[in-house]
């Protein structure tokens, strides 16, 4: 009996040692993975910030960043008759509201026949601008579908909110990556979206790439299915008529 108890005790000790070894491994791995993911996210954010700060043009109140699209500041948006002289037909205000915003609105542009679209957004990293990405992109796309239209996209400084919405448009409708969209705009205007908006644009970039990859895989599967159907029809034809074309 004592031997059995001793063996039983040794078995329990061995089990406890194994469990103690397992627990740290299972507990530390997710934490390490999360730390690695956070470091990777911060590194990508720094890379985008360096891209935005590197080179580019000097800051001015308004720039044409795309055919018939201007990004500008509050003062540009308030000069209605100057906009009319520029040929601007539509205004997208990415800073609608009263706090750190541009409180113009549709009535402000009525006497110059400029159509207005407003997005109520705060220029702070914690503000979620992503729900406006697709509606604003669709509006920009609709405006530019007519070659006679010209669009001003603005916020207070024309550097963060307005730039973010236009970058999202380039990514959604022109299939650009975030880096490509930034490089496209910064050649013509100095833009600095806040880090929260950059994070949201990175998420949009990932979603769009996944969608396009999925669509590409579906197209490839459809092509393979079509090729297989054609091959089967050819085989049936050869079985029926032979290589000479005469019915067997």
UniProtKB/TrEMBL annotation:
Source organism, top-level taxon: Eukaryota
Residue ranges annotated for the Tyrosine specific protein phosphatases domain, each copy included: 131-189
Main location (coarse class): cytoplasm
EC number: 3.1.3.16, 3.1.3.48
Catalytic activity: O-phospho-L-tyrosyl-[protein] + H2O = L-tyrosyl-[protein] + phosphate; O-phospho-L-threonyl-[protein] + H2O = L-threonyl-[protein] + phosphate; O-phospho-L-seryl-[protein] + H2O = L-seryl-[protein] + phosphate
Keywords: Cytoplasm, Hydrolase, Nucleus, Protein phosphatase
UniProt cross-references to SMART domains, sorted A to Z: DSPc
Chain segments annotated as coiled-coil in the UniProt record: none
Protein family (similarity comment): Belongs to the protein-tyrosine phosphatase family. Non-receptor class dual specificity subfamily.
Annotated protein name in UniProt: Dual specificity phosphatase 29
Gene source species: Anguilla anguilla
């Amino acid at each position: 009996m004592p031997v059995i108890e001793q063996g039983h005790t040794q078995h329990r000790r061995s089990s406890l040692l194994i469990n103690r070894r397992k627990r740290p491994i299972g507990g530390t791995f997710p934490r390490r993975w999360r730390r690695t993911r956070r470091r990777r996210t911060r590194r990508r954010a720094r890379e985008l910030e360096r891209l935005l700060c590197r080179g580019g043009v000097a800051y001015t109140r308004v720039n044409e960043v795309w055919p018939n699209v201007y990004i500008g500041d509050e003062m540009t948006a308030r000069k209605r008759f100057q906009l009319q002289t520029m040929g601007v037909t539509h205004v997208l205000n990415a800073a609608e509201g009263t706090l750190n915003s541009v409180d113009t609105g549709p009535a402000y542009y009525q006497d110059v026949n400029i159509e207005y679209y407003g997005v109520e957004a705060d220029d702070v990293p914690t503000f979620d601008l992503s729900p406006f990405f697709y509606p604003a992109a669709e509006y920009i796309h609709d405006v530019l579908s007519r070659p006679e239209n010209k669009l001003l996209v603005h916020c207070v400084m024309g550097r963060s909110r307005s730039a973010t919405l236009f970058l999202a448009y380039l990514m959604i409708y022109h299939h650009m990556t975030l880096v490509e969209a930034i490089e496209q705009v910064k050649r013509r205007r100095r833009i600095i979206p806040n880090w929260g908006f950059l994070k949201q644009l990175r998420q949009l970039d990932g979603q769009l790439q996944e969608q396009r990859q999925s669509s590409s895989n579906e197209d490839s599967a459809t092509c393979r299915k079509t090729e297989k159907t054609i091959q089967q029809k050819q085989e049936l034809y050869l079985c029926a008529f032979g290589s000479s074309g005469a019915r067997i």
